[in-house]
Design brief:
mainly alpha, 8 helices, 3 domains, about 270 residues, globular
Length: about 270
């Protein structure tokens, strides 16, 4: 089973792209860099608009599905769905942001737990799959099927059972981490909304910027893969911290004080 890496995924995507639109990845990466930088420096102020836009798009899609299910006219139904999604996103964006922060806290806590406790068992499980000649479950050459989804579910269930056997406290620790980190994220999002918006902006902007930069450099700079493997996490942590500080300072109105101009002495 081939290991899945961003480099392999990007190469596969480029190989399957028609030559007449070969410019699209570079243009999309450039646009993503601009959007990532915007989120990193002003994203906290844009979070309400971003959440509203996401819910409006979700409402449009839900309206399209509803029109197909009930046989109504697509135009008015999708417009109504988009309007409802926009209103819900605007009215309850603080709750959605709190949910995003809770999800981020859970993901970070599980990542740390996995790196400190589960690294050995996960490595053993991956090695066992290779020894068994496990087939790659996702391929760009074949469309997704119900069998593929069922295979993923079977692997997830097997991994859950395997980790529970290898690490006796795994399942209890998993639930405790999810609940505690999720509650902490929700409380932060609801009680300190400006901090939560800054966290979301930094968390969305930093990986978007780095992923787009990697996509542009891959294939153009031979050392890009090795450099990102070595310094990518460190660079992401630094940029995330700087973005958080900058967005939080912007939300709190903390700016360098401007000294008044020195008055010129009156001429005699």
């Amino acid at each position: 089973m081939n290991d899945f890496t961003p480099s392999l995924a990007l190469d596969a995507l480029l190989r399957h792209m028609p030559t007449d639109i070969a410019w699209v990845p570079a243009a999309a990466a450039g646009l993503a860099i601009v959007l990532g930088l915007l989120l990193m420096v002003r994203g906290a102020r844009l979070v309400p608009a971003l959440v509203s836009a996401i819910f409006a798009a979700s409402g449009v899609y839900a309206g399209l599905l509803a029109s197909q299910a009930f046989g109504t006219s697509p135009g008015p139904t999708t417009a109504a769905g988009g309007l409802i999604g926009l209103i819900l996103g605007f009215l309850f964006f603080r709750l959605w942001v709190a949910g995003l922060v809770a999800g981020l806290f859970v993901a970070v806590a599980l990542t740390v737990y996995g790196a400190r406790v589960l690294q050995g068992p996960l490595g053993e499980y991956g090695g066992r799959l290779k020894d068994q000649g496990g087939a790659q479950l996702v391929s760009l050459k074949e469309p997704a099927t119900t069998q593929a989804a069922a295979a993923w579910q079977a692997v997830a269930a097997e991994l859950w059972t395997y980790l529970g056997e290898r690490v006796p406290t795994f399942q209890a620790s998993f639930y405790a981490i999810v609940i505690s980190a999720g509650v902490a994220g929700l409380l932060l999002g609801l009680l300190l909304p400006r901090v939560a918006r800054s966290v979301c902006a930094a968390t969305l902007g930093t990986p978007l910027l780095l992923a787009a930069a990697y996509a542009l450099l891959h294939g153009r700079w031979p050392q890009a893969d090795a450099w990102f493997d070595r310094w990518g996490v460190t660079l992401a942590a630094i940029l995330w911290g700087l973005s958080l500080i900058y967005n939080l300072a912007d939300m709190l109105g903390i700016r360098p004080k401007k000294h008044p101009p020195v008055a010129k002495p009156a001429s005699a």
